[in-house]
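A.,

Following up on our hallway conversation. Structure tokens first:
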């Protein structure tokens, strides 16, 4: 702990958050506030300290060497700044610090990695990422939280905060994000990897993950907290009720696993649903097998748009204006899909082959 981290903050004069250490200031056994409204000169002795601002010995009692993140702490901290969690921004903060650690640990971050975090919040996961990574880029849409996190993370030169929406629109990330990632990666050298590690805002989790998989560089590893239902869809197998466009898109490029299911009680405020920590590992060799990744993604989306319909009618409407019915029938026959086939029964390889056959038929027809 350094003296520089001392903060004389009028909102909490008797208890300051010194980086990761909560401190209670006691003067002759009683909390005294007035002496400490300006920056005191503090000397530290083991796990106590003395303050030379007042003649009496001033004992600082170290309450904990971990940041506090209980529901009470967070609610008080936001209330002190006149704030409440904003539900439209998906502000459900993780209050179990073991799980914050689990997220960071599961990403196996190295010193030359660039880590992107979407949703800085008050910066608790960000600090752990900053301890382990070469560079952390963190994006927060809420100006109040961005300001709070900026103060919290001020002494961390490897953290860059961006204030704004991580999405330019549903299909595109904010361009600044990838520009910063590429910059940081080139600074950290050729072994540097790019990771997404976040407790994601649930309402934008799908476009964030889907869009990032289109980007260059693609994240080598993604470890994120998302809604459990979305986690189930990502890892779903053909024929199951959760299998759909997201399963096919993600599994076509990554290995996917659910690391832990989280109950609502580990968040504040509690969400209505269970959550999941998932890990995705990018497989560049799979990605390289696609002649046109954007075309593949668009085809997959349209194949699952009406998941209960027969494959033939889905493909006919998806290819309208590009292939006529006989051309669609020829492709389906060539791929061995009968009249009663449905997209949800096709495995990854069958979908990839169908999408590629449709792409080639389209080129031939144009
Ligand atoms: C689930 S909270 C996670 C906060 C913190 N990282 C934690 O682990 O407790 C999601 C955060 O994402 C922010 N957020 C929501 N939508 C966003 C968007 N489109 N772009 C950037 N940040 C967003 C919210 O304001 C909120 O702080």
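Then the amino acids I'd put at each of the 366 positions:
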């Amino acid at each position: 702990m350094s003296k520089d981290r001392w903060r004389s903050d009028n909102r909490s004069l008797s208890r300051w958050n010194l980086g990761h250490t909560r401190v209670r200031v006691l003067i002759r056994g009683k909390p005294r506030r007035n002496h400490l409204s300006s920056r005191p000169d503090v000397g530290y002795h083991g796990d106590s300290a003395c303050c030379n601002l007042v003649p009496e010995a001033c004992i600082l009692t170290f309450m904990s060497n971990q940041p506090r993140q209980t529901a009470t702490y967070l609610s008080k901290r936001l209330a002190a700044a006149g704030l409440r969690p904003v539900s439209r921004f998906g502000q459900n903060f993780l209050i179990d610090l073991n799980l914050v650690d689990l997220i960071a640990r599961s990403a196996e971050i190295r010193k030359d990695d660039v880590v992107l975090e979407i949703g800085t919040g008050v910066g608790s996961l960000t600090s752990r990422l900053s301890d382990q990574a070469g560079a952390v880029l963190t994006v927060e849409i809420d100006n109040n939280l961005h300001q709070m996190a900026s103060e919290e993370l001020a002494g961390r030169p490897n953290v860059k905060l961006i204030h704004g929406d991580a999405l330019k629109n549903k299909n595109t990330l904010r361009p600044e994000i990838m520009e910063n990632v590429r910059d940081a990666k080139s600074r950290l050298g050729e072994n540097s990897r790019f990771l997404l590690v976040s407790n994601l805002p649930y309402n934008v989790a799908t476009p964030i993950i889907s869009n990032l998989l289109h980007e260059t560089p693609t994240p080598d590893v993604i470890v994120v907290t998302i809604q459990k239902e979305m986690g189930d869809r990502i890892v779903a197998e053909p024929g199951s009720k959760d299998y759909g466009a997201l399963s096919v898109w993600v599994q076509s490029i990554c290995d996917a696993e659910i690391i832990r299911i989280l109950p609502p009680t580990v968040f504040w405020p509690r969400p209505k649903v269970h959550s999941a920590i998932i890990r995705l590992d990018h497989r560049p060799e799979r990605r390289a097998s696609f002649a046109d990744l954007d075309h593949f993604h668009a085809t997959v989306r349209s194949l699952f748009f009406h998941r209960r319909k027969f494959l033939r009618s889905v493909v006919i409407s998806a290819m309208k204006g590009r292939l006529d019915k006989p051309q669609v029938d020829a492709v389906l026959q060539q791929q061995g899909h009968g009249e009663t086939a449905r997209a949800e029964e096709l495995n990854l390889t069958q979908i990839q082959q169908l999408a590629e056959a449709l792409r080639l038929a389209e080129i031939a027809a144009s």
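Residues 89-94, 118-121, 124-125, 139-142, 145, 165-167, 199, 201, 204 surround S-adenosylmethionine (CB under 6 Å). Curious whether your intuition agrees with the design.

B.
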